[in-house]
Amino acid sequence: MSDASESDTPDEESDRDDDHLEDVDVGAGCTEIWEHLAEEREE
Predict the structure, then answer these.
(1) Is 30's pLDDT higher than 70?
(2) Torsion, Cα of 7, 10, 24, 17 (10° steps)
């Protein structure tokens, strides 16, 4: 078995590439994500 996700532990705090999507609801579609990104850009 591979240990490829060894550093991806949930307890680990790190700068993630998707931190800017933290406020997007789980299951959101493309439209909701684009709206969220546009709102963030306006601020």
Answers:
(1) yes
(2) -20
